[in-house]
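Changelog entry: the Glutaredoxin family protein record was regenerated in this release. Current contents:
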Amino acid sequence: MKNLVIMILAVAAVYKGYGYFNKAEPLASMTDADVMLFTSEVCHQPCIDARAVLRETSVKVEEILVGDSNPGSWERLKKVKRSAVAPLLITKTGRVEGFNRVEYLSAIGDSEGVDVLPWDAKEVLASHFYNGSPKLVMYGTQWRPYCQKAKKYFAENNISYEERDVEANNDYKRKYTWLQSSGYPLFYYGAKRLQGFDEKAVARLVE
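Regenerated structure tokens:
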């Protein structure tokens, strides 16, 4: 059965079933590291890439290789697992299932601060703060309906935000390109990331 679970973990990673989730994790009760990385014995390239990105940061990492060769790893995985995806990054404020460099760096920046990140990530994500406090930033366009819907929602609910039209400003376009978004709008609250517009998700983002 455990071998089957490992196979599922590997297959899920191959098709990039990753996701960034903003939710406090009970990290302190499980490790004295800043972040935890769960890998599998058959994860291969996604896990190699995940380790490489974590080495770019200055955070303390505990890696847990999940498999029969590592007694106790299954029990530790059960405490945090909600889906069969590897690698799995756990921070104090969220998780990333699978591998995506920008989502890893965003999650770590949200948890540990952008100063622990490599220069390219720090330069982009630091622009989402004002005097050390996070600000809500929306990357979008004028023609995208969901961008217009978001602006209407913000106006009706007196929510302050910074609009970054990626078609009208080359610097915003450069930052948006680095953030590797798959569409519009893309929201950031400090280093917290939200792809697409959903009223409840935006409300949780700025809590």
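Residues 2-14 form the longest helix (13 residues).
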